[in-house]
């Protein structure tokens, strides 16, 4: 359990941190074991329950809608960031997408890398038997699930 922080993008209220560790192949397009379970839990935590991401440990999907989770503190952070880094030397494609809401395009395998939530089979790995499906418990989730019937 962590105590509330005054940092603009910190956990401003007392909170509990839950960490899920998993291993993946060196090739990001190789599906993880229990791929669908991990994606469903991730979407349930961030979307259904409004969890806030760890700024150094989450996949990009953990940051979708993050601005709304921090309210006015998010804008205060951007104001300070822009003042202290006007030439954007400490920016990257990733930080610009997260901080400024610039969305990257969906592409084949983007859900396996955590760069999108699947909406089409191609976002998973259909050639390896992983297809975009509805979550089993959190039915609003869209996950890459293995199905030998469609290979």
TrEMBL record:
<dbReference type="InterPro" id="IPR007173">
    <property type="entry name" value="ALO_C"/>
</dbReference>
<feature type="domain" description="D-arabinono-1,4-lactone oxidase C-terminal">
    <location>
        <begin position="13"/>
        <end position="97"/>
    </location>
</feature>
<feature type="domain" description="L-gulonolactone oxidase 2-like C-terminal">
    <location>
        <begin position="108"/>
        <end position="145"/>
    </location>
</feature>
<keyword id="KW-0560">Oxidoreductase</keyword>
<comment type="pathway">
    <text>Cofactor biosynthesis; L-ascorbate biosynthesis.</text>
</comment>
<protein>
    <submittedName>
        <fullName>Uncharacterized protein</fullName>
    </submittedName>
</protein>
<dbReference type="InterPro" id="IPR055154">
    <property type="entry name" value="GULLO2-like_C"/>
</dbReference>
<comment type="similarity">
    <text>Belongs to the oxygen-dependent FAD-linked oxidoreductase family.</text>
</comment>
<dbReference type="GO" id="GO:0003885">
    <property type="term" value="F:D-arabinono-1,4-lactone oxidase activity"/>
</dbReference>
<dbReference type="Pfam" id="PF22906">
    <property type="entry name" value="GULLO2-like_3rd"/>
</dbReference>
<dbReference type="GO" id="GO:0019853">
    <property type="term" value="P:L-ascorbic acid biosynthetic process"/>
</dbReference>
<dbReference type="InterPro" id="IPR050432">
    <property type="entry name" value="FAD-linked_Oxidoreductases_BP"/>
</dbReference>
<dbReference type="Pfam" id="PF04030">
    <property type="entry name" value="ALO"/>
</dbReference>
<dbReference type="GO" id="GO:0016020">
    <property type="term" value="C:membrane"/>
</dbReference>
């Amino acid at each position: 359990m962590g105590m509330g922080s005054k940092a603009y993008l910190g956990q401003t209220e007392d909170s509990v941190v839950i960490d899920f560790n998993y291993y993946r192949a060196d090739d990001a397009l190789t599906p993880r074991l229990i791929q669908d379970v991990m994606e469903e839990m991730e979407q349930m935590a961030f979307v259904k329950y409004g969890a806030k991401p760890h700024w150094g440990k989450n996949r990009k999907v953990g940051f979708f809608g993050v601005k709304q989770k921090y309210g006015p503190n998010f804008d205060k952070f951007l104001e300070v960031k822009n003042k202290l880094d006007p030439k954007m030397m400490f920016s990257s494609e990733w930080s610009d997408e997260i901080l400024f809401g610039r969305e990257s395009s969906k592409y084949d395998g983007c859900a396996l890398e955590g760069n999108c939530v699947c909406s089409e089979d191609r976002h998973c790995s259909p050639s390896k038997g992983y297809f975009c499906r509805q979550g089993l418990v959190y039915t609003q989730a869209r996950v890459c699930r293995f199905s030998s019937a469609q290979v």
